[in-house]
Specification:
Jelly Rolls, 7-stranded mixed β-sheet, 6 helices, 32% strand, binds zinc ion
Length: 192
């Protein structure tokens, strides 16, 4: 297996092995391949060329993402006006499964998302509930009730419409993100 199928299989195994993910939502049973065309962004090359270190449980998904970087449909939600050119050139995500993902699902949304080092992802929110899992690297996650630095294997949850932000310091971060509940097909918006 290669490409996005390998990414999906590695994500499925990680979901089965990680209690926070398993408890958050059942693995979607309605997955159907959407055959999305590859769509590179500037971060695609960075991800393919950067050795990203996780823990034993997250490394297979990291490796599958790096190998499939060139065939994924990468997106960037924010405009240059919102986040600046440097941010846009060092971040990107793709929807592995979900309403508009590589594998269609209407029950759960799963993203792979990357931010390079030294980025400030400003306060934003969305209706869907969210769980971040740090696969590799690390970042500081902010909520109004406090900040927490995530390392590989650690998770951080955001409630519906709860404003959150993130800062990367000397390391980049590669994440696996789950969305559940109402607003599943929406996009995050900056809180300004
Ligand atoms: Zn979010």
């Amino acid at each position: 297996m290669s490409g996005l199928g390998a990414v999906l299989e590695a994500a499925r195994q990680l979901h089965a092995n990680h209690a926070d993910l398993r408890d958050y939502a059942p693995w979607p049973e309605d997955l159907a391949p959407a055959n999305l065309p590859a769509r590179p962004v500037p971060a695609t090359k960075i991800i393919a060329e950067t050795p990203l270190r996780g823990i034993d449980m997250t490394q297979p998904l990291i490796n599958a993402v790096r190998a499939a970087s060139g065939v994924a449909a990468w997106k960037r939600t924010y405009t240059e006006e919102e986040v600046g050119a440097h941010f846009r050139n060092h971040y990107g995500y793709f929807e592995l499964f979900g309403p508009t993902g590589h594998f269609n699902s209407s029950s759960l949304r799963g993203y792979i998302a990357y931010w390079g080092e030294g980025l400030n992802y400003d306060w934003h929110s969305h209706e869907a509930e969210e769980l971040y899992l740090c696969l590799a690297g690390g970042a500081e996650f902010h909520r109004s009730d406090g900040s927490l630095t995530l390392e590989p294997g650690q998770t951080r949850a955001h409630d519906s419409r709860q404003s959150h932000a993130m800062t990367t310091h000397v390391k980049p971060i590669l994440t696996f993100v789950l969305w559940r509940g109402p607003g599943l097909a929406d996009l995050p918006r900056m809180d300004r």
